[in-house]
Design goal:
With 90 residues, the protein is mainly alpha-helical. The chain has helices spanning 4-31, 39-46, 48-54, 58-62, 86-89.
Length: 90
């Protein structure tokens, strides 16, 4: 596990897993028409003029058709260590 190449492989695989969970969470909330992440609030805050046109249809149409760009950053800083082997711990 301490090999840099192996750590990079683990990071890449973990990113894929996290991204799939994020995708599923967004899809579920869009299907349920429930903006639990507050995207509408962020749009309202950062783009108030655009929000005027979006707010009327946000719950019924805007949120469910919203597309997302994900940027997942993950870095394994250390692998840790055990002072005893698993066999010694038994």
């Amino acid at each position: 596990i301490k090999d840099e190449e192996n750590i990079k492989k683990i990071e890449d695989e973990a990113k894929k897993i996290i991204e799939s969970y994020v995708d599923k969470a967004i899809l579920v909330t869009q299907n349920e028409k429930t903006d639990i992440f507050g995207f509408g609030t962020l749009i309202h805050k950062n783009y108030p003029k655009k929000w005027i046109n979006l707010k009327e249809t946000w719950d019924d149409n805007g949120f469910i058709n919203l597309s997302f760009e994900k940027n997942i950053n993950l870095k394994i800083n250390g692998t840790g260590s055990l002072k005893q082997t698993l066999k010694e711990m038994q």
